[in-house]
Amino acid sequence: MTIHLLSNTLDPVLSEDCVLAIGPTATFDDCPEQLDILFVPGGFVGKAMLDQATIAFLADRGAMAPYIASVCNGALILAAAGLLDGYRSATHWAGRDHLAQLGVEVSTERACIDRNRFTGGGVTAGIDFGLTVFAHTLGEKAAKFAQLMMGYDPKPPFNAGSPQGAGPEMVALFDKFTADSDTTLRNAVSQVKEQRAASSPTRHQGRMPASPPASSPPDRPFHRTTSLPTSTVCGALCDRNPRPYRGRGVVPTSSFPAPCHCTLGR
Amino acid sequence: MTIHLLSNTLDPVLSEDCVLAIGPTATFDDCPEQLDILFVPGGFVGKAMLDQATIAFLADRGAMAPYIASVCNGALILAAAGLLDGYRSATHWAGRDHLAQLGVEVSTERACIDRNRFTGGGVTAGIDFGLTVFAHTLGEKAAKFAQLMMGYDPKPPFNAGSPQGAGPEMVALFDKFTADSDTTLRNAVSQVKEQRAASSPTRHQGRMPASPPASSPPDRPFHRTTSLPTSTVCGALCDRNPRPYRGRGVVPTSSFPAPCHCTLGR
């Protein structure tokens, strides 16, 4: 199995606090033509949705990939590339309205499978999603092994992992703290809709989705998978306080403003 | 809140496949004296348990820290530094026997709290652990907000996240695939026991644990927390195929041998 981590360039893509770096292994230009699973992560995806190199790459490889996948708001990037037209998809609970705005049938599942589209819910749903994809591609035995390895027998201390469980007061607090990034996302959705309407006025009128493979191949490994790290981490495409890479990964975190949710206890 | 990511040096600490880098923000030498939470992550910790700079640093800061914490087999590093003498602790299920060998009372909880020691189980237990610590230090409201943000409403597709759920056949497969790293860990435990017996023959005879703070301070933020990235990722201290950092994070994953569990489906 070969995993390609893809980005516009080979520069490290940094997390919001600039202490975690993901090193792309190939660029959009030198990535193999044929990818078995085209996977897009989520996060603050407004800029990625509007990045033409990203969207063109996804549309191109997505037309050939046997499987197309995302977790969290990565579904919004897939939708921006037209890869969810006619499909049902999960996303982060706070991104569901945006996904619907892009004409996608929204699922509330943790791991949603619609033909050859595998999509996961927000952040931690990526674990349920990952095990589900693992089972469908490498077989149930491999998935169970991974689950045992990572001790995934969850016991959440609170029932606050969904809007229903957390309740309206907590959701209002969430909305307040994410207002800026939600506005960025809303604007990106509007721009994507305008661009797609202008470039292909008949796009939503009867276009057939690409066919999935005739059958899924359990117990047969994939040779290539693709991950696109541009959106989960702070780099050229991240909405949130992009900062230059200062080399060696050495950045005093004390010099950064606290992430929004860290001010809650103050 | 300030988070210090600590290591022997400021060099990036790389993941096993060398595509994920964590940049330390301070070294053991220039880290602040007083830390609110001294936190140690897990992984393949055999080398870290025997690294004298790591152990000396933890013993020193641990004597002053109001809270001492770990997830996964980070508990074995804490134990090697004497910081779990007289305490109950969780760890990865496969590390429990090793932890008991070091004289620690083993808990099977996802998040174990014994006075001022906060310890988590294996890998994904870090989420339950993190929310529990969050609630104890910044308050329940902050913890529930974090849970909502990351959509932590788990729905595992299988019941294979514990040895009991996965069953003996899967556990035997796990033992086979982790035999080498388990041997490394077993040897490290033996060496730690010998070193501690030689340096402090009366250590286990009535030494009183450090007292926890008089009361935990919910809704009051901590000013400093510490994470030690040396053991979860592949660097000088990782047991598993350490490889040189090749700069810019650009490493073709196709040149690496597949991790052990990736060969399952072949």
How would you sum up this structure, described in words?
2 copies of one chain form a homodimer. Chain A has helices spanning 46-50, 52-62, 74-80, 96-101, 125-138, 140-149, 163-166, 168-177, 179-199, and strands at residues 2-7, 13-14, 20-22, 26-27, 37-40, 67-70, 88-89, 105-106, 111-114, 117-120, 224-227. The first copy, chain A, is of the alpha/beta class and 266 residues long. The first copy, chain A, has a single domain (2-152, 161-241), classed as Class I glutamine amidotransferase (GATase) domain (Rossmann fold, 3-Layer(aba) Sandwich). In chain A, the strands form 3 sheets. Chain A has a 7-stranded mixed beta sheet with strand order 4-1-11-5-6-10-9. The first copy, chain A, has a two-stranded antiparallel sheet with strand order 2-3. In chain A, strands 7-8 form a two-stranded parallel ribbon. In chain A, helix 5 packs antiparallel against helix 6 (140-149). The longest helix of chain A is centred in the C-terminal third of the chain and has 21 residues, at 179-199. Chain A is globular. Chains A and B meet through strand 1, strand 3, helix 5, helix 6 and helix 7 of A and strand 1, strand 3, helix 5, helix 6 and helix 7 of B.
